[in-house]
Amino acid sequence: MRTVRLLRVTKVDNALEIIWRSFRPLAAEEVGLDIAGGRYLAEEIVAPEDVPAFDRSTVDGYAVRAAETFGAQESLPALLEKVGKVRMGEEAIPIKTGQCCYVPTGGMLPDGADAVVMIEQTTEVDGLAHIYKQVAPGENIIKRGEDIRRQQTVLRKGQKLRGPEIGLLGALGITGVKVVRRPVVGLLSTGDEVAPVDTPVLAPGWIRDANGVALAYLVTQTGARVVRGGIIPDRYKDLYVGVQSLLEKVDMVVLSGGSSVGERDFIPRVLKELSGGDLLIEGIAIQPGKPTILAKCGEKPILGLPGHPVSALTIFALFGCALIKRLSGAGDREWQPTVRAQLTKNIPSRPGRVDLVRTALQGREGKVLATPVFGRSGLLHTLAEADGVICIEAERDGLSAGEEVEVYLWV
């Protein structure tokens, strides 16, 4: 009599906590700003100087002493002697009582001035500037250090370096930063029936390795690098050797297929018996993707995905990306782009598990409509038709047409 192996299912939130608790960021390295984009800081950044380094104008106009413009109006302008013009990149000449100086946007404010009058509110006649509107001290200027103060912590450890952060570092004259090393992720597809995608004609009962190419793209989207381990048949020895060999070259292994409870699904056994192997998760309370496996070998994660494309790609987007971000040094879990939309159809759900429902979005009459894309987890076209997924929490027994829902967009 054959023994049936039951999955010890873990809740979704608990699975994410296990990921965060069980793994640590990789080692740090110093890189130049030209290749730092998308990486996570391994150190805090403290400003070495003020930004801006001088008081500067935010408009084209005349630098003035604000008190000398009080009461200025169209019928009674303030008259100030124009004593020069500030040139970009040059130090300004100080102004005295009764004087003003033309200054362009971004130009240095002269000593003695504490405001700028917009050029549109002035005229110049015979060296005299006619000021038709009063200004307050500090108006139309940015003070030295108003953006960033010297010794201010401007970026946190674990913060992702996007365009704004790269620009901020450049403004401070910082040309190199310590970031966490990019993870290298090994991909293995499993199954006696799986053929390479470039196979021109399939033998009866065979399928092409769609998961392998799709997962490789998702891995690169996270900023990690990919090592393809090929396709391994459903034999224990081949799987053991394949996983062990790939582990030596990468920081994380992702397996596609063979994680379920079928009699030829050897992956749980392989992961338990690898040297230093520790099976952390054997099934997650989620649909699709219940037979998901997570193990730890040394300090390296091994993620076992179901073989069906919908399950594999959906689960990787949730848990695989979380693992890569943890290894990459992400300090906080990042927000995933979402869209609020009105549901067009009822969606049934079973309480006790999280349901991820593929969803297509459509704009109509000023509204965003969300239509569920139903289909079995082996139907790859349902993923291509969807723009994202709706997450139905474990305590809900479904959603009703007309409800406002949050759609998590595909990467």
How far is the N terminus from the C terminus?
A: 45 Å
CATH level-four homologous superfamily name of the largest domain: MoaB/Mog-like domain
Pairing-aware structural class of the strands and helices? Answer: alpha/beta
Q: CATH class of the largest domain, please?
A: Alpha Beta
Beta fraction? 25-35%
Overall helicity: 10-25%
Largest sheet: 6 strands, mixed
Q: Specify the overall morphology.
A: elongated
Mean pLDDT: 91
Record the strand order, biggest sheet: 7-4-6-5-9-8
The number of domains: 4
Number of helices: 7
Query: What gyration radius follows from the Cα positions, in whole Å?
Result: 31 Å
| Total E-strand runs | 28
Spans of at least 5 consecutive residues with low confidence: 1-6
CATH fold name of the largest domain = Molybdenum Cofactor Biosythetic Enzyme, Chain A
CATH architecture of the largest domain: 3-Layer(aba) Sandwich
What is the fold's blueprint, element by element?
Layout: H1 12-22, E1 28-32, E2 45-46, E3 56-57, E4 61-64, E5 78-85, E6 99-103, E7 115-118, E8 122-125, E9 128-131, E10 141-142, E11 153-155, H2 163-171, E12 176-180, E13 184-190, E14 194-195, E15 207-208, H3 210-221, E16 225-232, H4 236-247, E17 252-256, H5 267-273, E18 277-282, E19 286-287, E20 293-297, E21 300-305, H6 309-328, E22 338-343, E23 347-348, E24 354-364, E25 367-372, H7 381-385, E26 388-392, E27 398-399, E28 404-409
Parallel strand pairs: 5-6, 13-16, 13-17, 14-15, 17-21, 19-24, 22-25
Antiparallel strand pairs: 1-12, 2-11, 3-10, 4-6, 4-7, 5-9, 8-9, 18-20, 20-21, 22-28, 23-27, 24-25, 24-26, 26-28
Helix pairs in contact: 1-6, 3-6, 4-5
